[in-house]
Each structure stands twice: as structure tokens, then as C-alpha cells.
Amino acid sequence: MSSNNKEKKNNGKKRVAMISVHSDPLSKLGGREAGGQNVYVAELSKELGKMGWTVDIFTRLTRRRTKKMRRAANNVNVVYLKSGPHNHVPKEDLLEKLPEFLGNFLEYKERNKINYSIVHGHYHDGGWVASQIKRVLDIPMVQTFHSLGHVRHRALEKFGEEHIDMEPFEERIKTEQEIMKVTDKIVATNPPERKDILRYYSFDLEEKIEVIPCGVNLQKFRKINKEKARKHRNIDKSEVLLLYVGRLDSRKGVETTIRALPKVIRDFSKKNKTVKFMVVGGKIGKRGDKIDIKEKERLLGIAKELGVEDNVVFEGKRDQEKLKNYYSAADIFITAPYYEPFGMTALETMRCGTPIIASNVGGLPYLIKNRKNGLLFPVGKHNSLADRIIKLENDEKMREAVIESGEEMIKEKYGWKIIANDMAKLYQQLI
Ligand code: UDP
Hints:
By secondary structure, the chain is of the alpha/beta class. Helix content is about 45%, strand content about 15%. Helix 9 links the parallel strand 9 and strand 10. It binds uridine-5'-diphosphate. Uridine-5'-diphosphate binds near residues 35, 317, 342 and 348.
């Protein structure tokens, strides 16, 4: 069948409108607002495309483009819609721009005579647009939140340094509540997220929630020769390489790992080992992002106070294709967030055969069973983190068991193909 015929056949049947307002699945990752959601939308859509669904991903136009549509994969297109100015707008300020986004979506749909069988909203901005589309077109809707206002606010209040302004959260939470009322199904990416939705929003939502996790790209992420990977990054044999990969957001808790360093360095020096903590992520180059650079400076300031600045390296953001080199080179991957709805980097490091230590928060304890496929430590407790690092580095038997168990779990459950299959089943139930 020609691709044109296939498109026609899919007009209305097995055709999804993905609404991902602030997350362009084709944008570079690792900057302030380009992380997990971009990956989720891109990978899920690509797999759905392979399964014969047609997927149109709608995202905001953030710069002048001559082409307003780009092909992302087989059967998958990204459509750029004008919504406010042609530049970056912080996602907190996007709500008032959404009616324009909605109007442009409807105009695009009419002009191209497309019928969608389902709309899938992402985050509360995309969820608002998707719920209006559902209302106007009378089609079923699925919503993935990626992050919840209530939970994020609580985490900031508990661990943030400055006074937290509640006003933007009130608007966000109200929008989330409205979306939850309207949508047919809510996809929670793990049981803890499901629990948070019931507890902080409404117990009446029980029937609406389906748990479908995030996945990992099994081709992009795989183990490569450790020695080669280390050589590539100039890592000496005697050096213990600790790694973080992710956005440079203070809620990611990179600070906790820096605070754990003095104890770890002291312990390892007894065995003539040195320690390097590599931070991959953040737009911190010459033409970087002011907020990312400020966060890097803040973290560096803490490292200086503790006298460990020579042990910390800020690499800046890296393309996903390169990350297997970093994961494979590292001895231990550490993610120490104060709030983490899912934590895709946990899957990526397990896939690359590098053991993980993570804070016991959000979705992480769902992915990591302590001492089985990783180690958990209490949020923000740098001394406990240091103890776990020392334990994992010194206990070769535990290390091997943790790595093996992590690799098995990924192969069994977390390829995007499996995840997209579950999502497609959910769509089919509704259309
Ligand atoms: N990432 C990347 N380059 C970087 C930093 C991060 O490609 O320099 C990717 C990483 O591989 C992961 C995603 O960004 O897939 C971050 O997802 P995660 O769930 O850890 O965090 P979120 O961004 O959702 O808070």
C-alpha cells in the first residue's frame, strides 16, 4: 500500500493527536525545559508509528520556521503551531497562550481534512488543549501529566531554599483538576504517581487511572566497552567515576551528591583511589542559558566551600546518542532528586550496565528495589548517600548482582515497544 493510501486509511482510524505544547520531540535535550517529556513523546510516537498508527505531534512554534511540519519517523509528524511570540516562553507563562494554540490546531485539522480518533495530552498545558479538543470534536482523550503541581509544590516547600510563591501553583492545580474531570483516562507512569493523583486530587479518579510506565530505547542505550569509554573521557583506572545525567534543575538534587563527596574522597584515598563526579546536562556553554549557568555556579560554589571543586566536572548537555559512552564509563550513576515523577535516566543507566544509587522518592522506589537492582537513600541525606557509594564500590558481589538484576528488568519490561503496545491497547479500548 502506498504511504498516501495508508494515510487515507488512517484518517479517523488509529490516528492520534499528541499535544505536547512546551516539549518539542525533535529539540536538543538536556537544557532547562528539554528532558523526559520530549523523550517520552518522541519514543512513544515512533513505536506507535511502527505499529501502524498515524501520529501527529503538536508543539509550540518557538522560532521562525519556513516549514511548519517535520517528519519525525515513519507515520509520525511534528506540527508547529503559533502560540504567542516566536521565541521561548517559560512553561509557567504559557497558559494564557493556549487558546491561540487550540485555534491553530482546529484550523490545521480543518484545512487538511484530518479526523483524529483520539487525543493524548501531555503535562497540564497540553492537557488543557487536549481537553478542549475533546469537547469540540467529541473524541476520546488520554492524559499523561509527567509532573503534578501538588507534589512539585510540596517538594519545593520542603527542600527549596527560597520562599515559594503559591499563586502559579494554584492556577496549575486548578487546570490539572479540570483536565482530570474531562479526560477519559489518565496514564500514571507508576503506582506512586497513581497514589498521588488519588490522594491530592480525588479518590473518585480510581477508575480513570491506568499505570503504563516510561520506557528506554534499547538501541540507543547499550553497554559499550568500559575501558574504551573511559579512555574517551580521559578517566584513569584509579579514578572512581560518579555520574549524573539530567537537567540542571535544583530539584534534581545534584547538590546532595556534591555534599557527599568529602566523606567518599576521604574513604577512597585510603585505597589510593581518586574520585570524579561528572555532571552531564545543562546549557552552560558560551551561549548558554542564564538560569542553567546560575545553577552551575551555585553548585560549584558549594563544591568550593567543601574543597571538592577539583573533583566535580560539568560537561554540559550531550546528545542522547552520546550518553551510552558516559553511562558505560561510570562506576556508579547517582540521581538524588527531591521530586521525580518517573526518572528515565534510571532505566538508561541500568541498560548500560552501570549500577544506580537514587533517592527514595516519587517513581524511583518503584523502579529500584533496594540492594537488588540499585541502592536507595533518604532524600537529601548526603551522609547516607556517601555510605551507599562506599558500600557499592567496595562490595564487588553486590555490584555484580545489582547490575545483572537491572539489565534483566529492562529487557523484560521496559523496551518502548512493550510500552507502546500497552498504550495502543488503551487507545483501542476508547475508540
Ligand atoms: N538527556 C540528554 N542529554 C543531556 C541530559 C539529559 O539526552 O545532556 C536526556 C536523558 O537521556 C533522559 C532525559 O533527558 O532521557 C531526562 O529524563 P528524566 O526522566 O531523567 O528527567 P526529566 O527531564 O523528565 O526531569
